[in-house]
TrEMBL record:
Signal peptide: none annotated. Lumazine-binding repeats lie at residues 75-171, 172-270. Coiled coil: none annotated. InterPro entries: ATP_synth_asu-like_sf (IPR023366), Lumazine-bd (IPR001783), Lumazine-bd_dom (IPR026017), Riboflavin_synthase-like_b-brl (IPR017938). It holds the Pfam family Lum_binding. PANTHER family: RIBOFLAVIN SYNTHASE (PTHR21098:SF0), RIBOFLAVIN SYNTHASE ALPHA CHAIN (PTHR21098). SUPFAM superfamilies: Riboflavin synthase domain-like. It comes from Hevea brasiliensis. Keywords: Repeat. This is Lumazine-binding domain-containing protein.
Amino acid sequence: MSHSFSHASLATTSKVSPSITPITATRRITNLRSAKPHFKLAPPSKSYARSLFTAKTTLNPVLKPRYSTPAIRCLFTGIIEEMGEIKHLGTIQDGGFDLNIRAKTVLEGVNLGDSIAVNGTCLTVTSFTNEEFTVGLSPETLRKTSLIELEPGSLVNLERAVQPTSRMGGHFVQGHVDGTGEIVEKEPEGDSLWVKVKVDKGLLKYVVPKGFIAVDGTSLTVVDVFDDEGCFNFMLVAYTQQKVVIPLKKVGQKVNLEVDILGKYVERLLSSGFVESIKAS
């Protein structure tokens, strides 16, 4: 079964702290988005060092109270449930960021502290209504993922964490983004779409033909790996193109990548001398 044929279905406003005006919030995010490659954010302070899962923000009376304890790490399948719409991305007083998303399917049975993968990034629900939910982002998450490119109106892939009774239609996805890649080519073939992504060699070594990879949280099967170009490609069938955000992105835009964790475990075991110790015994 090719996981590029993943099942998915198509598919919110946190207030900025009174001490931070909308203009200030907009400038902060704009500065992060427009930063040149050599730009570095200030080293994380103690207030930044908190986990993504314990982000504290000013309470929004319209939304339900925020969750204050760390969420349990969860597992995803890479089978996108719906596409949500970004309503608001803004700074909060203690240095973090709020991301407010309009959604429907992933809000069914949602609770404070639940994990939802947003473009493949595992984030924790800090407040919600019947039509939207809010998650907290740390500056480090914005550094490491493509979420910094989001703006009001952007669509994002959404998936709730797996429950013990769920079908595992994709592969094991942790929601821990390993890095980003850049779309360098999109080529239609019939009603399917070829997509080629350029990625750092440090991640490309974990990408293998016919292996798993999560692209913006979507479980896909790699078709070919081009070591000389530092790229890999995959194909999206017509159905999948209608259910995930990848086809909506343009050449030059970033995608979040999470490689198959099995490859990293194997590398770790080999480099630690595990095989040699087994032979010696």
